[in-house]
Amino acid sequence: MDWTSAETPPEMKKSEWWPESEPVLVYEADGTMRVATYEQVDDDSTPCWYSADSERWTLETVTHWMPLPLPPTPAMRRRPKGGRVD
Length: 86
Prior knowledge:
Blueprint: E1 4-5, E2 13-14, E3 19-20, E4 24-28, E5 33-39, E6 48-51, E7 58-59, E8 62-67, H1 74-77
Antiparallel strand pairs: 1-8, 2-3, 4-5, 4-8, 5-6, 6-7
């Protein structure tokens, strides 16, 4: 997966309340990475980034984003600790 500039935000889709993106991984100017969404919470507001945690902080220094990776497959989840699955 490649990083995309925050100047090209992810696609927003209508959710229950307002348009928002799927959760993505963002990179901020200070080097912080976190899961976030890109949302337009009001018809008159400019879309912006929000942290996808319970705090829902407005993120003002996002420089790049990428889709979240897929979850582990069932075989990966059953892998013995420190063991190999061939």
